[in-house]
UniProtKB/TrEMBL annotation, chains A, B:
Alphabetically ordered keywords of this record: Aminotransferase, Decarboxylase, Lyase, Pyridoxal phosphate, Transferase
UniProt GO MF annotations: aromatic-L-amino-acid decarboxylase activity; pyridoxal phosphate binding; transaminase activity
Entry keyword Transferase: yes
Protein name (database record): Aminotransferase class V-fold PLP-dependent enzyme
Protein species of origin: Streptomyces albus
Length: 493, 493
C-alpha cells in the first residue's frame, strides 16, 4: 500500500463531485463559460469604479484597498471559484492603470486588442508547453510559422529565405539573447567551444540612448559592462560609434543600435551605423522593440531602412503591436546563428526521438516549460492582416504628430523634438525639473493621468507615449489641459 | 504638419468605427464577451475533433493540418476577429496534447484549473506590467502579498518573517536566479562589487539527478560547468556530496539539491544535504519545482523536511499546482539576499519618485515588461484554500501509488521504485531500450497516449507523470493496457 493512499482509495465519485474543476478536456469549455462571465462582469465593474486612467489616492491608498479585499491570500478553506474571481479581478481592475484609457500614456504599455486577449484564453485553457512536441503538437507548428513570417517581414525579401525568430518575454529577453549569441559566436571564433576563455571576450558597444536592459544583459552574461557612446542628440551617431570602435580595436564587438528609443522614440541612423559596424568587423544588433512594427506600414517602414542589415533584431508586439504581454521576438536573418542555443535533455529531445521525426524544440528558448504566447499573435495577424496592422500603426503615429502640434502651439511648453514614432516629449518653458516631476506625480496621485518622464539633454521632461490607436483629438487636448492645470498649481499660479 | 499625418487627420469617426477593438477600458468587457464565446466554442469543437489525449498521425500530419488552416500567417487583408479565432483556436485545440486527458501523462505538464485559466483573462485584458507602479498599481500589491505568503509557506513559521519570493516563468528561470544570486553573493564576499574577478568564482555542485536547467543556467551566467555528483540511486547522497565538496575545498560553492526529480519524482535527502553544505560553508539551493506543493498538505509536507534550511527554493505552480504556464517562483528566507537584482532606470524608478512613495518594482525580476502571472495564482489560492490545494495534491499522489500497485501486479513489468510524488517509472521485464522508445512513439503516433521516457540506472523506462487530480482507477488501468498492447505489437507477440 502506498504511503500516499487516500482513505478508501481513489474514488470515481470524487471526480464526479469535481466536474468543472479543469479548463481542458471535453468538459473544460463548459466549466470555463460561467467563470469567464464572472471575470468579464468584474472587469466591467472595476472599470466603472475606477472611472479614469488609474485609481485615485496613490500607492498607499491602492495597496490598502487591495489588502482589504485580497487577504487572507491563502485561507484554510477556499472561497470558491466565483467569489475569488469576482473579488480579486474586481479589485485589480478597479486598481489598474488602464492603457485603454487615452490618458494613460506614460510607458510602452499598450492597450491590448480584444481579439488578442480572447486568443490568450486558449493558451491558458489548453496549456501547451513549447519545450517538446508531445506537449504542443499544433501550437509548436503555429509558432514556427509565425516566427518565420515575422522574420521575413523584418529582414525583407532580399535576405529573408533563412530568416527565423524566437519568441521571448519581451525586448529585455530578446536583447539578452542577442548578447548571448554574440558572446557564443565570438567564443567559437576565437577560442573554440566549451572552454571558458572566450566568455569575456565580446565587447558590447551601445549608445547612451540604449535601453537599460542592454546593460543588465551584459551583467547577467558575465560580460564587461557595455562601452557607452555619448548620444547628446538622443541617437547613436555613426561618427561617434566609429571613435568608440577604434578605441576597442582588436576586441570582438557587438554594436547595439536602437530603433525607437524608450525616452523619445528616436530611431538611430541604421544605414550609417551598419556601415561603420561592418568596417570594424563588429556584429550589429538592432533593438527595434518599439519601432519594429513600422515594418507593417508601407508608408512608414522606410524609417527603418538599414534594419535588414542587422545580425539580430529585437521586435516586440506588446508595445506598438497591441498584444497582451508577453509578445517579444528576437529575429535573425539566418536560423543557423541560433545553433549555440541547442541543448539536449534526454526526456525532451533524445536523439532517437529526433531521428524518428519528433521535432526538437529546446533550441527555441532558454526557458523549458513555455506558454504559446505566439497564439494570440497568430490570431491578431490573421484577423487584421498587414493592412490592418499598418492602419493602427499609422493612426497611432499620426496622433503623436497632432499632439506635438498642440504642444508647439502653446507658448508655455518646449517640445523636445518632432516625434519619430509615437512619443511626444515636452517640458515647461519656465520651470525646473522638480516642477516636471511634481506635476507627473500629482496627476498620478489624483488618478487623472499617467504620464511618463524622460531625462534628456540634461533636463527632465514629460513623456507621452501614445499607443492607443483609438485616441481622439479631444483626448490629446485633455492631456495638454491637465498638464497645464497641474502646472499652475505647482507654480502657485 | 507631421510626416505621419493621416489624410484628413485623426477622425473621431474612425474611432467609432473601431469600437470593440480593445480589451480594456469601459467598453472592453462588452467587446470581449462574444469573442470569448467564439474561443470557448472552438475549444469545444477542437476537443471533440481530437477525441483523445493528442492528435493522430504524428508530427507531419499535425503540421500539415495546421499549415492548411493557419496560412497565410500575415494576409494582406485581415479575416476579422471571429474568423481568425475560430480557425486558429480550433486547429490548436484539435492538435493539442491535452493534459486534462488522463492518458496525457508524460511530462510535468499539468491540466490547468478552470478558475485559474479564467483569472488569466483579466491579466490579458487589463495588461498590467509589473515593472513600475504606474503600470500596475493594484496588481503589484497582489504580487507582493502572494509572494510573501508562498515564501512563508515554503520556509515555515520558524524562519519566515522576512521571507519573500520572485515570480518567474518557471523552474528554469528560478534556477537561473538562484545561481545568479549565489554568483553575486560570492562576488561581493570575495572581490567587492563591480569588479569582474569574482564572476567565475562560484562553483555549482549538483547531483546527476538535477534538472538540465541548472547546467544551462551556469552556461548562461558565464560560470564553470556544474560539478556533477554521481547519483546512482537517483538522489544526491550526503556522503557523495561531501566527497565532492572536499574536492573543491576553498572555492565558494552552491549546492543544488532536487525535491522531486524530473525523471522519477525522487526527493533528495534534504536534512543530510543541508548539514553537509553548512559544514563546508556552501550555499544550498533546493529545486522543488515539482515537489514544492507538497507543503500544502499537512500529511505530505514532512517529505520536504529540510527545505526550510535552504538559501533559496525553486517552487512552481504550473506543475503540481494546476496553473496555466507561467507560474514559477524563487523563494528566499530573507528578502535582503535579493539586493543584487536592484537596478535603476530613471524612467521607471527614479530616486525622487521612490522617495515620494512610488514603489520600486524593478528588483523583482530581470525582465522589464512583465505580465501579472501571479493573479491567477492569487485567485486559485483564494478559491481553493490550503485545504483544497492539499486535497488535489494528495489525490494526485494517491493515484501514483495506485498505478504503481497495478504495474507491480503485472508480471510483465519492472517498477523502478515506489513513487515519492506522482511519477511512476517502469519498463518491460523482458525487452530492450528500443522497445521502450518504440512503444512510446507508437502510442504518440496513433494519438492513444502521451507517456514520457526516463533514462535511469543505465536503462530506458516509461515515465507516467500523473498530474491530473481527476484521474480515475479505470484511467490507470487503461494506461497499463495500452502499454501492454503496444508492447505486444512491438515484440511481434
Ligand atoms: C528600446 C527598448 N528596448 C527594450 C525594451 C525592453 O522591452 P520589454 O520591457 O518588453 O522587456 C524596452 C522597454 O521599454 C525598450 O523601450
Ligand atoms: C526538477 C525540475 N526543475 C526545474 C524544471 C524547470 O521548470 P520549468 O520547465 O517550469 O522551467 C523542471 C521541469 O520539468 C524540473 O522537473
Amino acid at each position: 500500500m502506498s504511503v500516499f493512499a487516500l482513505d478508501g482509495g481513489l474514488r470515481a465519485a470524487d471526480c464526479d463531485a469535481d466536474a468543472g474543476l479543469l479548463a481542458g478536456g471535453a468538459a473544460g469549455p463548459a466549466a470555463l463559460r460561467p467563470l469567464l462571465e464572472t471575470v468579464v462582469a468584474a472587469l466591467e465593474r472595476g472599470a466603472v469604479e475606477r472611472g479614469g486612467p488609474l485609481p485615485r489616492g496613490g500607492p498607499e491608498a491602492v495597496a490598502g484597498r487591495v489588502r482589504a479585499v485580497a487577504g487572507p491570500v491563502l485561507p484554510e478553506v477556499g472561497a470558491g471559484a466565483a467569489a475569488a474571481l469576482d473579488a480579486l479581478v474586481g479589485v485589480v481592475a478597479q486598481g489598474a492603470a488602464d492603457p485603454a484609457d487615452p490618458l494613460c500614456a506614460a510607458h510602452l504599455h499598450c492597450p491590448p486588442l480584444a481579439v488578442a486577449a480572447a486568443a490568450d484564453v486558449a493558451a491558458s485553457a489548453l496549456n501547451p508547453s513549447l519545450d517538446s512536441w508531445d506537449q504542443a503538437p499544433a501550437a509548436s507548428e503555429v509558432e514556427a510559422l509565425v516566427c518565420r513570417s515575422l522574420a521575413r517581414l523584418v529582414f525583407g525579401a532580399g535576405r529573408a529565405s533563412d530568416a527565423d525568430a524566437l519568441v521571448t518575454t519581451g525586448g529585455t529577453e530578446a536583447n539578452q539573447l542577442a548578447l548571448l549569441l554574440a558572446r557564443e559566436r565570438f567564443r567559437e571564433r576565437f577560442s573554440g567551444r566549451g572552454g571558458a576563455g572566450g566568455v569575456r571576450g565580446v565587447r558590447v558597444v551601445c549608445g547612451a540612448n540604449a535601453h537599460h536592459s542592454v546593460h543588465r544583459a551584459a551583467w547577467l552574461l558575465g560580460l564587461e559592462p557595455p562601452l557607452v557612446v555619448p548620444a547628446p542628440r538622443g541617437v547613436l551617431e555613426p561618427a561617434a560609434l566609429e571613435v568608440a570602435l577604434r578605441g576597442v580595436a582588436g576586441a570582438p564587438a557587438l554594436v547595439v543600435a536602437t530603433a525607437g528609443t524608450t525616452d523619445a522614440g528616436a530611431i538611430d541612423p541604421l544605414p550609417g551605423i551598419g556601415a561603420v559596424a561592418r568596417r570594424y568587423g563588429a556584429l550589429l544588433h538592432v533593438d527595434a522593440a518599439y519601432g519594429g512594427p513600422l515594418v507593417f506600414s508601407e508608408r512608414l517602414r522606410g524609417r527603418l531602412a538599414g534594419l535588414e542589415c542587422a545580425d539580430s533584431v529585437t521586435f516586440d508586439l506588446h508595445k506598438l503591436g497591441w498584444q497582451p504581454v508577453a509578445a517579444g521576438f528576437l529575429a535573425v536573418p539566418d536560423a543557423g546563428v541560433l545553433r549555440p542555443l541547442g541543448h539536449c535533455a534526454d526526456y525532451l529531445n533524445a536523439d532517437d526521438d529526433t531521428e524518428a521525426g519528433l521535432p526538437d524544440l529546446l533550441w527555441r528558448s532558454l526557458r523549458t516549460t513555455r506558454r504559446p504566447d505566439v497564439l494570440k499573435v497568430a490570431v491578431t495577424l490573421r484577423a487584421l492582416g498587414r493592412s490592418g496592422m499598418a492602419r493602427l500603426v499609422e493612426r497611432t503615429c499620426a496622433a503623436a504628430g497632432e499632439l506635438a502640434e498642440l504642444v508647439r502651439g502653446e507658448g508655455r511648453f518646449v517640445l523636445y523634438g518632432e516625434p519619430e514614432i509615437s512619443t511626444v516629449v515636452f517640458r515647461p518653458a519656465v520651470g525646473d525639473d522638480a516642477l516636471v516631476a511634481g506635476v507627473r506625480r500629482r496627476l498620478l496621485e489624483r488618478g487623472q493621468a499617467v504620464l511618463g518622464r524622460a531625462s534628456l539633454a540634461g533636463r527632465l521632461w514629460w513623456k507621452v507615449t501614445l499607443l492607443n490607436p483609438l485616441v481622439r483629438p479631444s483626448d490629446l487636448a485633455a492631456v495638454v489641459k491637465l498638464v497645464e492645470e497641474a502646472m499652475e498649481e505647482g507654480t502657485g499660479a
